[in-house]
Amino acid sequence: MSIGLRSDVKQWTTLGLIVMMLAAVSGCGNRESAEPASPVPAQSADQVREIAKQAYVYGFPMVDSYRIQHAYFVDKSGPQYKGDWNQTHSTARVYTPDDTTVQTPNSDTPYTMLGTDLRAEPLILTVPPIEEGRYYSLQFIDAYTSNFAYVGSRTTGNGGGQYLLAGPGWKGDKPEGVDEVIRSDTDFALVIYRTQLFDPADIDNVKKIQAGYTVEPLSAYLKQSAVSAPPVDFIAPLTPDEQKTSPRFFEILSFLLKYAPVVPGEQDLRARFASIGIGPDGTFNADELSAETRDAVQAGMAQAWAELNAFKKDKLDTGQVTSAQLFGTREFLAGNYLYRMAGAVLGIYGNTAQEAIYPVVAVDSDGAPLSGAGGYTLRFAPEALPPVNSFWSLTMYKMPESLLVANPINRYLINSPMLPGLTRDPDGGITVYVQNQSPGAAKESNWLPAPEGPFQMILRLYWPKEEALNGAWAPPKAVKN
Predict the structure, then answer these.
(1) Nearest to 195 by CA among 90, 97, 68
(2) Packing angle between helix 45-73 and helix 291-311, nearest 10 degrees?
(3) How many CA atoms lie within 13 A of 261 on its CB side?
(4) pLDDT tens digits for 296-352?
(5) Which of 73, 102, 147, 232 matches a 20 to 30 Å C-alpha distance to 371?
(6) 473 near 461, Cβ under 8 Å?
């Protein structure tokens, strides 16, 4: 990478290059050959700490994603439960402060969720025709949280189609009538559908589109006998706070790695994890750790967070690294696991840059963290609105929870569909008033309510234009009143 990475990021990148070279020499490209090398036992507490740190950075997105999908598709008694695997589950509304499972939720587009279990056979996903001018997307996310494919306005158009989603073990051919075969590196994958809602009166149109998002097993599509896989004994997830310090984190990671075959370039890394019992056949048991080993493991977890926090302060908050560099395919991230962890912590399931970018407004124009104790303005000059092919939004989040903010006017964002109702400045620009209390009736149309305490805002640019991707356009700064 050429953006002045911290030494820890360079170490990860170097490690990734080394193991990719080894994989090329040995010809490890398929599921059968891509098994971990024989583990070498760790020799000291320092080694355990270092391996635990690396495994934590590597595994955090997987474990946090499991927490979310367990709530959505496994925990039938939980408040966030949506339904079974391999079925679409639509929410014909946008997210509100009552939605607390996912950090930095999008409140622009009603969601349809599809949790997929691909162990037995592929699925056929059908997308209906959608009128031109309405943005939609299907984001395909594997257990590593890599965005491995897209269907939608940007990539496939609004004409509809049928898509086969297969797991790593499927070796069949594309059936007649299927537009594309999409392959996941992991047995479990998540598909997030986003459908643009223009305004509250548009909700019935969104419901009709969501009803056309269907899924069926390949066997049903081919009118053949159904295929089944053994039931999975899903283990209990950790809470977000527990994930930070509990050594049981690595038990969950080991469980998840059973359904995530080793990908090319990670054989040595996975063997390193296995040396302290972390892996699909791992023996890591948090309850049986010696005091010394437990201390070393927790020290590694703490060090991972320290490195992430330093990376956020030094690189993300200063704009040297942007959200565009945190999300993408496995090949795009290229073994940069600290970036992948940062993406999961700051906004898990973020889109690939070509689909959406997320400039974060976390400090004011003087570099001070944002707080509802004061008021701010964000001004978009008349020719400097976010450049998009679809639409944009500016959303408020209370910190450190990264959740939407309850407020008296139930406004969680300001977005481009709201432009006709916003008050323009004399030159045609738009000033957004960011504060806890109303700025007064004359300015309330442009008010984005803030919490009383710390907060940040995220700009979302859906289907961004080139000037947003290449840095020619820059988001406005928050100016303290």
Answers:
(1) 90
(2) 70
(3) 20
(4) 999 999 999 999 999 999 998 888 998 899 999 999 999 999 999 999 998 899 999
(5) 102
(6) no
Report field, pTM of the whole predicted structure over 0.90: no
Amino acid at 254: S
Crossing angle of helices 45-73 and 337-347, in 10° steps, is 40
Q: How far apart are CA 255 and CA 282, in angstroms?
A: 9
Q: Are strands 356-357 and 455-462 parallel, antiparallel or unpaired?
A: antiparallel
Tokens of 1: 């990478």
Residues near 480 by Cβ (< 8 Å), separated by ≥ 6?
364, 365, 366, 368, 374, 375, 376
Q: Classify 406 as helix, strand or coil.
A: coil
CB-based contacts of 48: which residues, under 8 Å, 6+ apart?
42, 276, 293, 296, 297, 300
The rounded distance, in Å, linking the Cα atoms of 109 and 115 is 18
Which of 287, 462, 264 lies closest to 357, judged by CA?
A: 462
Q: Which residues pair with 398 in a beta bridge?
A: 403, 455
Write out pLDDT tens, residues 230-260. Answer: 999 999 999 999 999 999 999 999 999 999 9
Query: Phi and psi dihedrals of 453, rounded to 5?
Result: -105, -150
Tokens at residue 359, please? Answer: 């400039």
H-only helix segments in 212-336: 218-221, 240-245, 249-257, 267-274, 291-311, 330-333
Torsion angle, alpha carbons of 214, 216, 222, 226, to 10: -160
For 155, the token pair is 């990539």
The span from the CA of 34 to the CA of 24, in Å, is 11
The CA dihedral of 395, 397, 406, 62, to the nearest 10 degrees, is: 110
The rounded distance, in Å, linking the Cα atoms of 169 and 171 is 6
Nearest by Cα to 292 from 43, 10, 7: 43
- Within 10 Å of residue 442's Cβ, how many Cβ atoms? 8
Closest CA to 188 of 65, 88, 102, 83: 65
Q: Are 479 and 364 in contact (CB under 8 A)?
A: yes
- Domains detected in the chain: 7-68+239-347 (no CATH), 82-221 (2.60.40.1610), 359-480 (2.60.120.1600)
| Structure tokens given for 142 | 């594997």
> How crowded is residue 400: how many other Cβ atoms within 10 Å of its Cβ?
10
Taking the CA atoms of the chain, what radius of gyration do you get in angstroms?
A: 23
